Amino acid sequence: MKKIGIIALALFMQNIYAQANRFVYQVTMKPDAANKNDIKTENAYLDISAEKSMFYSENRLKRDSIMQQNFQSGGARGFNRDQMEGLRSNINYSIEKDKINQKTFFKDRIGRDNYSYEEDRPLTWKILPETTKIGEYKVQKAETDFGGRKWTAWFTTDLPYQDGPYKFTGLPGLIVKVEDAQGEYSFDLMKNYKIADFPTMNQFGNTIKVKRADYLKQQEKYRTDPMSFMSQQGGGFSQTRIGGSGIASPRSGGGGGGRGGNQNPAEMRKRMEDRIKEEAKNNSNPIELK
Questions:
Q1: Residue 66 lies in domain
Q2: pTM confidence score
Q3: 8: how many CB neighbours lie within 10 A of its CB?
């Protein structure tokens, strides 16, 4: 009986250890540099386990679910364009933090391919004595300079996590709120709950591991001449859709399927080019300025 009890306890602990916690943040953004009155708001998830954490858009998970259902049905149903358009996101990147090796990885799509780099700038925090309460949590103030912005964070030690949304980490607690000095980007913790495991993210196209500087160069090439960039990637226009940070698969929010087969290639190219330029304008005030 004692041996059975030990096995049962081990299985119970293994189950608890395998679980992850999901923290839901409301992300408020002013992504258009020419129109600061255009405020975007959406939810993002920070999933945390003992070994790692992942930060990504809630809409991405919903889009992936629709895509997966469509694939499982053999694509017969097609996509609900209005539904997919409603799930467009300004958070087209994802961020994974390797807690064991203390590394942060940024992933984003440029054109047809996914790019991944390891963040090479450690955050240096100044922890201040000021405390307050946000919701049910007692929080303490901290400040840092990162990506060309000055950030103020409020973290809590009421929860057994040392993490935060986006690339923010390194404080002795969980970040409940973080906002830049201009009030152009903010992350506010709304709720949290347990999940069985991390979701599997759909990946379309190649995944290319680069240095951060190389990623920025590729991003600039894409913004300067997106059509030339796409041609160099060797992709046909009918294989891609436009997402928040570039041309992507249907998961990036375009809708996908059922259109474009009989359209003039020149018209398709012009329409896509116009849309890419509009996307660039609407995302001309990125979270990282440098």
A1: 20-122+184-229+268-283
A2: 0.79
A3: 10
